[in-house]
Amino acid sequence: MIKKEKISFFLLSACIACNSGNEITKKPVQLVTLDPGHFHAALVQKSMYPDVDSTVYVYAPAGNDLKYHLDRINGYNARAEDPTHWDEKIYSGEDFFEKMIAEKKGNVVVLSGNNKKKSEYIVSSLQNGFNVFADKPMVINSKGFEKLKEAFAVAKKNDLLLYDIMTERYEITTQLQKELSMIPEIFGTLEKGSIDNPAITKESVHHLYKYVSGNVLTRPAWFLDASQQGEGIVDVMTHLVDLVQWEAFPEKIIDTNNIKINSAKRWTTDIGLSAFQAITKLEKFPLYLDNNISNDTILHIFCNGEINYTINNVYAKTSVTWRYKAPEGTGDTHYSIMRGTKANLVIRQGQEENYKPVLYIDPVSADPGYKLMLTTAFTKLRDKYPGLELTSVGKMMKVIIPEKYIEGHEAHFARVTEKFLGYLKNKNIPAWEVPNMIAKYYTTTKALELALKNE
């Protein structure tokens, strides 16, 4: 009897071992990380997700980009509070992309790295049966935009999901700015604006030297090459253009025929060799940066841009500025205004706000009855976000947001990943999402065309 029990146990163990690599034992979502050169790839894995398998297959060329990515994942696995438990399976041959396609180890490709080939990677991944979760920008020029349209057609044909990582939709002041703009008693209706006084303005300031997950970020040298990373007007600008569409025309499909670029410009941020060394850990500039270097020591990076455009006959302005390093105690900053017929909704993040985003309601007129109407209508928002309060700051009202709603930029990656996973599981991506992704990249790539043409 004992012998029979031992045999049964061994057979069961053997079956478990045999099945451990089969799909039947895996969770429904199996991530495949492709060439993770940007730190956003790791931030997707800063959290665990119920439907995502802990084994992740990574295909990338050997080198520092891969090393830094794995270091970040290992850091999340080893942290004392709420550690992750990712198991990274690595392939680092030169044929990494072909190997990924041939092995088909998972069903979702995560793309966050060098953007030069990203549109090709997206199309090929979709053609071979992978869903794609891509960091911005999905494309960095007009040629890439045409590829992107092809990619969405392939995704639809193959019943796959292509989605980009729009973290800024999850910043609480931005969410509340959108919510308030949908309450007519508070906001009225959105102004049309003019080229000199747009109805919507969004500006962001970023820094090359920054901290990520508590450590100074080491950036790859190609990040400072606009031909590989993309210019500022098509890179970070993607977030701002997305927010204009998402806030001004919630759940409405944007037709590219209703977008007109009125003006666009680009300019450089210049850094010296010592600054380059500090953020890349490299001793000298690589040869591919030669055309962007003057006097052998100054690197000119086309990472800044501004777009003035109309969308559905509403004037909008978006701008992105990169600096080397933020002053002590500060960081990346955001400014936004939506102009309504009754009030302007303004997000500021300056010295007065202690460099934290703060949302203000700025009445257009001095109507004494407006404050009472505002206070009454604000209860609609408080029902959805318990704990919100208003306080007077001069003629404006400041929205006081409880700490429970405030998350940092890194936490937003979990929120947008959860949204993607929900769409993937339930097959319920809203009808406006795909056409509006197309409209967004149409705006950024057409703006770059115009900026280059005007020089």
Q: Could you explain the architecture of this structure?
A:
With 455 residues, the protein is α/β, with parallel strands linked by helices. The protein folds into 2 domains: 2-165, 3-Layer(aba) Sandwich (Rossmann fold); 168-453, Dihydrodipicolinate Reductase, domain 2, CATH 3.30.360.10. It has helices at 2-19, 40-43, 64-78, 96-103, 118-127, 142-157, 172-181, 184-187, 226-229, 237-248, 273-280, 370-384, 409-426, 433-453; strands spanning 31-34, 55-59, 87-91, 108-111, 131-134, 162-164, 200-209, 211-212, 215-216, 259-272, 293-294, 298-311, 314-325, 333-339, 343-348, 358-363, 389-393, 396-400. Strands 7, 10, 11, 12, 13, 14, 15, 16, 17 and 18 form a 10-stranded mixed sheet that branches. The protein has a 6-stranded parallel sheet with strand order 3-2-1-4-5-6. The protein has a two-stranded antiparallel ribbon with strand order 8-9. A hairpin with a 2-residue loop joins strand 12 (298-311) and strand 13. Helix 10 crosses helix 14 (433-453).
Mind sketching the topology for me?
Blueprint: H1 2-19, E1 31-34, H2 40-43, E2 55-59, H3 64-78, E3 87-91, H4 96-103, E4 108-111, H5 118-127, E5 131-134, H6 142-157, E6 162-164, H7 172-181, H8 184-187, E7 200-209, E8 211-212, E9 215-216, H9 226-229, H10 237-248, E10 259-272, H11 273-280, E11 293-294, E12 298-311, E13 314-325, E14 333-339, E15 343-348, E16 358-363, H12 370-384, E17 389-393, E18 396-400, H13 409-426, H14 433-453
Parallel strand pairs: 1-2, 1-4, 2-3, 4-5, 5-6, 7-13
Antiparallel strand pairs: 7-14, 8-9, 10-12, 11-12, 12-13, 14-15, 15-16, 16-18, 17-18
Helix pairs in contact: 5-6, 6-14, 7-10, 10-14
